[in-house]
Amino acid sequence: MKIDLTEISIEQAIIDRNIARARIVELSCRIDVASCELLKLREELDLLRGHDAQTSLTFNSSEEMVRLERSSQLLSKVSALPTGVIGRLSDLRRPTVIAHTDTICGKSVDGRRQVPIVRADHRYLTISGWVVPRNHRQAISEVVVSLVTSDEARRVHERTTSREDVAKHFSNQAFVKSGFQCAFPMKEITAGTYTVELSAQIASKIARRRLFSVVLK
Amino acid sequence: MVASQQKLVDALKDAELVNKKAMNLARRLSEIHREIAELKGEIFRIKAS
Q: What average pLDDT does range B26-45 have in this prediction?
């Protein structure tokens, strides 16, 4: 009886390759989760160290986000994944959110991408709105609103506020605590154009969303 | 070289490439875990002081 060893070797090589591919997916998922944990720890450390360290944290976070994007790109290149693995992957990817800004300094944003504000007219730059996770049933536990320019970032950690109307709209009682309200003291902000960014924590993951620009005169 | 042998060589090369990628990712994960441990240590030190 003759046995073709080449065929057996090919089969084994393909099995080895598939195992390595699955390993890549598994490792990529773990890297995503670990990166999220790293971000949270950096933010916690930033809070403990005080306001001065916040600028450097922003840059670190941006670098980390770029690395996360690269990780996601790598994941998309891996083909022929077992369906079970793909299912777990979608659970671990960075979540996205649906966010809406109701008012800024008490005035409606009305979908504008750039909002002018006169500093002298207000003691605080107040922003209110709501945010819910997209494709997630879990509620958002914490919201961080940031004013970002090219060389500095100011952050306000906000607990979520009650929004029965949002929960009713999405038919999900988990979204009751989906509102946010924050206030930046005007005396601490110089004139200029700021991008308002929102970070929302969903379970152990952090979603980010750029809302609009505010021009302080 | 017969076609089946060429196929084997290609499959082995492919497996080696994917293995190399997996090793790089494992190294990267290890670096992240090390950084996490350092940050946790730093946070603990600040909280304790």
A: 86
Q: Is B22 on the interface with A (CB under 8 A)?
A: yes
pLDDT 10s digits, A88-132: 444 445 557 788 888 888 887 777 778 888 888 888 888 888 888
Considering only CB atoms, B36 lies closest to which of A10, A13, A37, namely A37
Chain A: closest CA distance from residue B32 (Å): 7
Give A72-128 as a DSSP string. HHHHHH--S--HHHHHHHHHHSPPEEEEEEEEETTEE-TT-SEEEE-GGG-SEEEEE
Report the chain B residue with the minimal C-alpha distance to residue A46.
B43
Cβ contacts below 8 Å, chain A against chain B, sum to: 70
Q: The complex's ipTM?
A: 0.86
> Which residues lie closer than 8 Å to B27 by C-beta, 6 or more apart?
none
